[in-house]
Amino acid sequence: MQILEHKVAIVAGASAGIGRATARIFAAAGAAVVVGARRQTELDSVVGEIRHAGGKATALAGDVTDENYARALVDLALREYGGLDIALNNAATLGLGDITAMPLPEWRRTLDVNLTSAFLAAKYQLPRMLERGRGSLIFTSSFVGYTAGFPGMAAYAASKAGLIGLTQVLASEYGPRGIRVNSLLPGATDTEMAREYANTAEKRAFIAGLYPLKRIAAPEEIAHAALFLASDASSFVTGSALLADGGVSINRVG
């Protein structure tokens, strides 16, 4: 039996990187997957890959900061697959820049995409999980703003730290009703968004050198950590900030 057999999952931010890899791995583990992101073409591509491999998937494009879209993703899961058991809320933006020069709309946009979208997702995902009597709600946070800080990432760090607080409260509130809530904290991962920050070979080499493993993660490595949190293998894990960061949080390079 596949570990997510008969489960229904939403993966937001699924057009590329960690989200795309997670959608494929969830489907390979037996889940029916609803994928969401802004880019329809990329979503259609991942749905095609999942179906070609024999899995179940459907897509809905939209803006994660739009409350109507958060509701529509859940409605699609119910309409297509009959319920909701798992959600990985993974959409993110970097919002890079010196905070003294950052326009207020850019700050707000970063928090809206990274943090407010998680609130909107949980608002509609939790009631449907409660109908099942159990569920796994996952937010993609970061070690940045938790165990380390990097120049130019104030808005990103603030939003990702906020996800950990949201995780802890929701875990406390909904644990008695069978819902587990966790944050997944990746380290540097080879994604489109990460390449915006590490945009030269020199920067990538420097970042890799910060890690005990001396490399950057593949998206699939983080997706397998998400699979652990989604599955019953983590049945006694809730309220956690699960580091999948290659050891960067314990490494100090002088």
Description of the molecule:
The protein is α/β, with parallel strands linked by helices and 254 residues long. The protein has a single domain, classed as 3-Layer(aba) Sandwich (Rossmann fold), CATH 3.40.50. Helix content is 46%, strand content 15%. The protein is built from eight helices and seven strands; from the N terminus they run E-H-E-H-E-H-E-H-E-H-E-H-H-H-E. The chain has helices spanning 17-28, 40-52, 67-81, 104-132, 154-174, 192-197, 201-209, 219-230, and strands at 8-12, 32-37, 56-61, 86-89, 135-140, 179-186, 241-244. It has a seven-stranded parallel beta sheet with strand order 3-2-1-4-5-6-7, sandwiched between helices. Helix 1 packs parallel to helix 2, helix 1 (17-28) packs across helix 8 (219-230) and helix 3 (67-81) packs parallel to helix 4 (104-132). The relative contact order is 0.15.
* Rounded mean pLDDT score: 93
Query: What would the principal axes of the Cα set say about the shape?
Result: globular
CATH architecture: 3-Layer(aba) Sandwich
Number of domains: 1
Q: What is the third-level CATH name, the topology?
A: Rossmann fold
C-alpha Rg (nearest Å)? 17 Å
CATH homologous superfamily heading: NAD(P)-binding Rossmann-like Domain
For the sheet with most strands, the description reads:
7 strands, parallel
- Ranges where pLDDT stays below 50 over 5 or more residues in a row are none
What kind of assembly state do the chains in view correspond to? Answer: single chain
* Number of beta strands: 7
State which percent range the strand residues make up: 15-25%
What percent of residues adopt helix (DSSP H or I)? Answer: 40-55%
Element-by-element helix/strand order: EHEHEHEHEHEHHHE
Quickly name the level 1 CATH class: Alpha Beta
- Tell me the distance between the termini: 48 Å
By DSSP (H or I, 4+ residues per run), the number of helices equals: 8
Derived from helix and strand composition plus strand pairing, the structural class reads alpha/beta
